[in-house]
């Protein structure tokens, strides 16, 4: 036996109003008295009426969906680095609180970018853009078309877009200053990719602290992964065998550095101190537990959504938002 879904006409009849009035109440429009609104809502509850999403979208010109576009391969988003999952968690929680739907999209190919452009031009109210590299075409492509865009992290190039970032420069500087105050003399860094704002800004923070202490900057580069940190650490040890401290621009690179130090017989922190950046869960269980700069990844996701909601309500932010970081002391420094 087929059970027919309640219709908007039935809601209107039960509430004693016109279909147009019932539609305004269901779609959150104004111009309806409190008494009529309550009658329509009571009818909706009584009948178990559920609005048709497609029809509602035609009336309101809203989809109540927000896309989170991560400019990385899916394997990276769901890989070892929990940063992406933490941001997704924050985005999802804030959207759920606002009765909006999350659409998660990942891409790192030209075909994927075209798919994102086509989809987001029609099916979402806004786009949250995360982890772009360099002059990513998504910056300009999404910035020119329909829905508004909020970036997670300061865009390095492209059009001026709203963004929420963390204090990468200040956090890195704080971590290196701690090493300097602890008496470390030859402090090297494993920097992140220089086509990403986090990699650029954390290297700036390191250089600022080193220059203020009248030291020489010694830099190797990784890609935020554990393996790249281990390779960079071996390279630094070969070039600077007297180094006594390392600032790594991500916890995964710091954990890779710890492995390289163990393999070469260096004691941490006795011979070499190590400071990372992120404060991922693995940092607490590293051997030894990792001193690191904590960034609020779930809050980054929440604040991206809040900024988007303000834009959708016609109240765009006057300036970007930068979230604070803090140094978490453990056993490696």
TrEMBL record:
The keyword Transcription regulation applies. Pfam families: LacI, Peripla_BP_3. SMART domains: HTH_LACI (SM00354). GO terms for molecular function: DNA-binding transcription factor activity; transcription cis-regulatory region binding. CDD domains: HTH_LacI (cd01392), PBP1_LacI_sugar_binding-like (cd06267). Keywords: DNA-binding, Transcription, Transcription regulation. The keyword Transcription regulation applies. Residues 6-60 form the HTH lacI-type domain. This is DNA-binding LacI/PurR family transcriptional regulator.
């Amino acid at each position: 036996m087929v059970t027919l879904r309640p219709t908007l006409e039935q809601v209107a009849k039960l509430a004693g109003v016109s279909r147009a009035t019932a539609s305004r109440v269901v779609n959150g429009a104004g111009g309806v008295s409190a008494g009529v609104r309550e009658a329509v809502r009571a009818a909706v509850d009584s009948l178990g009426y559920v609005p048709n999403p497609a029809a509602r979208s035609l009336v309101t010109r809203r989809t109540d969906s927000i896309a989170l576009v991560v400019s990385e391969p899916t394997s990276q988003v769901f890989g070892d680095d929990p940063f992406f999952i933490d941001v997704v968690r924050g985005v999802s929680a804030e959207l759920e609180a606002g009765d909006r739907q999350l659409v998660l999209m990942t891409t790192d190919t030209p075909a994927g970018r075209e798919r994102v452009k086509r989809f987001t031009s029609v099916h979402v109210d806004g786009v949250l853009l995360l982890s772009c590299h360099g002059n990513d075409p998504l910056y300009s492509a999404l910035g020119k078309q329909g829905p508004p865009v909020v970036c997670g992290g300061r865009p390095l190039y492209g059009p001026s877009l709203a963004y929420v970032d963390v204090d990468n420069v200040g956090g890195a500087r704080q971590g290196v200053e701690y090493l300097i105050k602890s008496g470390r003399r030859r402090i090297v860094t494993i920097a992140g990719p220089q086509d990403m704002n986090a990699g650029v800004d954390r290297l700036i923070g390191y250089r600022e602290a080193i220059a203020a202490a009248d030291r020489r900057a010694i830099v190797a580069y990784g890609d935020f992964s554990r393996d790249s940190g281990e390779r960079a650490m071996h390279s630094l040890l070969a070039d600077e065998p007297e180094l006594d401290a390392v600032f790594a621009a991500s916890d995964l690179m710091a954990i890779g550095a710890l492995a390289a130090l163990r393999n070469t017989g260096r004691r941490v922190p006795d011979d070499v101190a190590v400071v990372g950046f992120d404060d991922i869960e693995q940092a607490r269980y590293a051997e030894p537990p990792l001193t690191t700069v904590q960034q609020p990844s779930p809050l980054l996701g929440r604040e991206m959504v809040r900024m988007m909601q303000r834009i959708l309500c016609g109240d765009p932010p006057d300036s970007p938002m930068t979230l604070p970081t803090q140094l978490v002391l453990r056993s490696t420094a």
